[in-house]
Design a protein that fits this description.
With about 280 residues, this protein is an all-alpha fold. The protein is flat. It has 11 helices and no strands. Helix content is about 65%, strand content about 0%. The longest helix has about 40 residues, at about 115-150. The chain has 2 domains: about 15-180, no CATH class; about 180-275, no CATH class.
Length: about 280
């Protein structure tokens, strides 16, 4: 079999002393982009086929009164544009594991067998955490936020929700809650790079709570109860991030031995032991 033949989803096998040319890198980038586009297009086609079910799923959290009134559109093209946008965001969500895999397969062309398994586990963890955040936002945060906003003012207003604005609100909230669930992996990554240590995370817990409250305030949920629902799991994720940082962390980059052997020149309480 030709050694240059590779399945689109496979890893490049590159010897440690092998150097790839610019043309090889561009060819690899083209292949990864093609696979990513095909994955998104395929997911978009599936989302379009099941668009009615997706729209029903996204409008289910609306209060009963809004279900009776329905969503309104203000231009002839708005139904088409709105459905295309919903299908596109759904396709990106479905194709997320493939997209993350392709990014890794391009950036890390030559790694050992153990590192491959580790990185695939990271890709799976990122995808699962993001989906868990989306589910959390859909089932807990979104219904409460909609009830608060649409019921604000009582009987003084008759709210008619515009379809494009509603689905934009839902997409923003779900993607925001999905990203907040990536906090533990981000914390572990910074610790692995030697930028922070678990001790730093523990010492700055008050600042972390302030930051979590600020993030919850900027989410489109708005009401205090929804903010609390977002803050509680984020604080739990912060604790998980401290644990991951203690497992995968390395010494601070500015305290490592200048000779590059990975051992600290001046160990301190703020650092962690180097991991194998």
């Amino acid at each position: 079999m030709n050694s240059r033949f590779r399945l689109p989803l496979g890893f490049r096998t590159v010897a440690p002393d092998e150097r790839l040319s610019i043309v090889d890198h561009l060819d690899e980038l083209r292949r990864r982009l093609v696979v990513s586009v095909v994955a998104v297009v395929g997911a978009f086609a599936a989302a379009y086929i099941f668009r009615d079910a997706i729209l029903r799923l996204l409008t289910r959290p609306l209060p009963p009164k809004q279900h009776h009134l329905g969503l309104v559109t203000l231009s002839p093209t708005e139904p088409f544009i709105t459905i295309m946008e919903v299908c596109l965001w759904t396709a990106i969500l479905i194709a997320l594991p493939v997209l993350l895999y392709q990014v890794y397969a391009f950036v890390i062309p030559a790694v050992g067998r153990h590192s491959r398994r580790m990185m695939l586990a990271i890709v799976a963890a990122v995808s699962l955490l993001f989906l868990a955040g989306v589910a959390f936002g859909y089932y807990l945060v979104l219904p409460i936020a909609l009830k608060f906003f649409l019921g604000f003012g009582g009987s003084q207003f008759t709210s008619q929700v515009r379809a494009q604005d509603y689905f934009g609100f839902v997409a923003t909230l779900l993607f925001a809650t999905g990203l907040t669930f990536e906090v533990p992996l981000a914390m572990a990554t910074f610790a692995r790079l030697g930028l922070v240590t678990p001790a730093m995370y523990r010492k700055q817990w008050r600042l972390a709570i302030v930051g979590i409250a600020a993030i919850a305030a900027f989410l489109p949920s708005g009401d205090p109860f929804s903010m609390l629902l977002v803050m509680v799991p984020m604080m739990g994720l912060y604790v998980v991030g401290i644990w991951l940082a203690s497992v995968f962390g390395r010494p601070l980059v500015w305290r490592r031995n200048p000779w590059g052997d990975g051992i600290e020149a001046n160990p301190s309480d703020d650092s962690v032991a180097p991991q194998a």
